[in-house]
């Protein structure tokens, strides 16, 4: 007979040592169950056996009232003494096959997994579920010397579970503000497998109001699961929001969408916060104004925190990486406030310093759109193709650029924009190819950065368009609202079409005059010109 199925959605791991002063453990437990905790693990690191059994017994008594199963951390004897649903064991605890022999076929066994190899073993040994961790830094356990997996590392492990029946929760540093980031960022790149739930200690146990803490986590997990059910079969990361009939998805449809976004920018003037490099700051602010949006270049951590609710989108361009703390706060708050977050990882492959900083930022927040040239996208995709071929000016640097952007979009759960003489944009499902542009773009500094700025402007417009026109779609768990694939296309198309118009002007004699003409052409660009010139292919 198959073992009973548990609901892993919000998995409370207990920790009496983390209770706020004056809060009783059993009272906190009961409140968290009322908030919607679906599974409880009794974890006692300092109690002797008698005390552990007593705590587990009373915990089970309370959980039984709410029909919530209880598992025991590490101790098979305590599980047997209390008659709980099963155990959770770590890599250095009783080996799983032996534990299975001792506790019988009906009990649940969960196993901690820190990497792909441990996950393979857990599957071979028929674990019921795995606890993947630590996702982020945690103060609830000493994880010194261990690399935090981040959402993407979690997703790599989830890929192995698809079709195995083994369930998965993530653990370590999970709190309400980073939960949507984790759920989306861990969608597995190859199979689109997702977490079955999240395991937390401090977010609930250390709370003065565990009922509210549990219920807020539960709302987000439930909403995410409902959204994934609605999306069955769709692999794109953000196509969800503005899901369109595939038959309607032609160039005509896309250009019409871009035109609509251009009008919204002019009417609504969204504020775009740009943490960008010193070389391009002035031009980035000017192109923002030229398309109708409003620039602000704030980097101070306190300031970006306060600004976040008011902005339409946030751009993080880490050209000179002077303001990492501000970048961390701005990106995290963009996630928390569900604002589009555009990441331009300038020269990320060039030095280990840049690679490490990009990894740190990407573990801290979830970008909506990542824009880069071939070398940058190659570095993020961990591809050696561009480095070994050299970025040739006539191509993208990749043999199959469409496949690269598609795979990276799935890996990072973000829209990927690969810029170059031809631009490629993907959400992991669809790929758009844009062949507009001018050779002058390579002759001015910061053209890629300006493209990133315009993508941020149109992402803000797309969000506004969604809020004006659409029924809310599982808002609790969505990282952003609006069609971000079309937004990325709009940013690229408007920029490259304006560059063509600028290059054709008789007063443009070289890069200097081109630079000014480009701002003028962006300012004067009409939807009709975009329609007329657009060279967009749907691959
Ligand atoms: C759900 C879940 N996942 C992982 C762990 C960690 O277990 P373990 O590796 O045994 O470490 P300790 O909890 O014993 O410190 C867990 N407890 N629960
Ligand atoms: C018990 C535990 N195990 C981890 C692992 O990585 O295996 S992290 C962790 C602590 C989780 O606590 P919090 O939710 O407060 O971060």
TrEMBL record:
Residues 10-204 form the Thiamine phosphate synthase/TenI domain. In the C-terminal section; belongs to the Thz kinase family. In the N-terminal section; belongs to the thiamine-phosphate synthase family. One of its GO terms (biological process) is thiamine biosynthetic process. GO terms for cellular component: cytoplasm. Condenses 4-methyl-5-(beta-hydroxyethyl)thiazole monophosphate (THZ-P) and 2-methyl-4-amino-5-hydroxymethyl pyrimidine pyrophosphate (HMP-PP) to form thiamine monophosphate (TMP). The keyword Transferase applies. Pathway: Cofactor biosynthesis; thiamine diphosphate biosynthesis; 4-methyl-5-(2-phosphoethyl)-thiazole from 5-(2-hydroxyethyl)-4-methylthiazole: step 1/1; Cofactor biosynthesis; thiamine diphosphate biosynthesis; thiamine phosphate from 4-amino-2-methyl-5-diphosphomethylpyrimidine and 4-methyl-5-(2-phosphoethyl)-thiazole: step 1/1. This is Hydroxyethylthiazole kinase. Coiled coil: none annotated. NCBIfam families: PRK09355.1, thiE. Keywords: ATP-binding, Kinase, Magnesium, Metal-binding, Nucleotide-binding, Thiamine biosynthesis, Transferase. GO terms for molecular function: ATP binding; hydroxyethylthiazole kinase activity; magnesium ion binding; thiamine-phosphate diphosphorylase activity. It comes from the Eukaryota. The keyword Phosphoprotein does not apply.
């Amino acid at each position: 007979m198959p073992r009973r199925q548990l609901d892993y959605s919000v998995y409370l791991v207990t920790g009496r040592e983390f209770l706020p002063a004056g809060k009783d453990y059993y009272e906190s437990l009961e409140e968290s169950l009322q908030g919607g905790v679906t599974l409880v693990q009794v974890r006692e690191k300092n109690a002797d056996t008698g005390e552990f059994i007593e705590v587990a017994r009373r915990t089970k008594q309370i959980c039984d009232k709410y029909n919530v199963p209880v598992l025991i951390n590490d101790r098979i004897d305590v599980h047997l003494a209390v008659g709980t649903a099963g155990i959770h064991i770590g890599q250095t605890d009783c080996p799983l096959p032996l534990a299975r022999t001792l506790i019988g076929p009906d009990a649940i066994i969960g196993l901690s997994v820190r990497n792909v190899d441990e996950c393979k073993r857990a599957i071979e040994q028929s674990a019921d579920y795995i606890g993947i961790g630590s996702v982020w830094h945690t103060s609830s356990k000493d994880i010194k010397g261990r690399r935090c997996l981040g959402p993407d590392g979690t997703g790599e492990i989830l890929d192995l579970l698809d079709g195995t029946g083994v369930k998965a929760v993530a653990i370590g540093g999970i709190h309400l503000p980073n939960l949507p980031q984790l759920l989306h960022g861990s969608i597995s790149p190859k199979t689109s497998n997702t977490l079955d739930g999240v395991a937390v200690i401090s977010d609930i146990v250390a709370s003065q109001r565990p009922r509210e803490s549990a219920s807020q986590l539960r709302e987000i997990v439930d909403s995410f699961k409902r959204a994934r059910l609605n999306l069955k079969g769709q692999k794109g990361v953000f196509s969800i929001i503005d899901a369109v009939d595939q038959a309607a998805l032609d160039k005509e449809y896309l250009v019409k969408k871009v035109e609509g976004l251009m009008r919204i920018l002019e009417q609504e003037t969204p504020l775009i916060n740009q943490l960008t490099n010193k070389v391009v700051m002035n031009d980035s602010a000017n192109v923002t104004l030229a398309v109708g949006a409003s620039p602000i270049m704030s980097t101070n951590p306190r300031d970006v925190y306060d600004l976040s609710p008011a902005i339409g989108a946030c751009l993080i361009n880490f050209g000179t990486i002077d303001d990492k703390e501000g970048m961390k706060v701005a990106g995290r708050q963009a996630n928390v406030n569900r604002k589009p977050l555009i990441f331009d990882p300038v020269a990320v492959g060039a030095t280990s310093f840049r690679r490490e900083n990009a990894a740190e930022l990407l573990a801290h927040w979830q970008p909506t759109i990542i824009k880069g040239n071939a070398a940058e996208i190659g570095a993020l995709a961990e591809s050696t193709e561009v480095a070994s071929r050299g970025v040739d000016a006539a191509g993208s640097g990749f043999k199959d650029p469409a496949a690269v952007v598609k795979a990276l979009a799935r890996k990072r759960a973000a829209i990927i924009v690969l810029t170059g003489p031809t631009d490629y944009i993907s959400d992991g499902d669809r790929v758009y190819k844009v062949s507009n542009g001018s050779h002058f773009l390579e002759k001015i500094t910061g053209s890629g950065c300006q493209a990133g700025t315009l993508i941020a402007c149109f992402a803000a417009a797309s969000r506004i368009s969604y809020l004006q026109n659409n029924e809310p779609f599982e808002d609790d768990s969505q990282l952003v609202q609006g069609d971000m694939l079309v937004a990325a296309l709009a940013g690229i198309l408007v920029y490259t079409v304006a560059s063509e118009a600028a290059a054709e002007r008789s007063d443009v004699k070289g890069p200097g005059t081109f630079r000014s003409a480009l701002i003028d052409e962006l300012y004067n660009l009409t939807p009709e010109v975009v329609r007329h010139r657009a060279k967009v292919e749907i691959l």
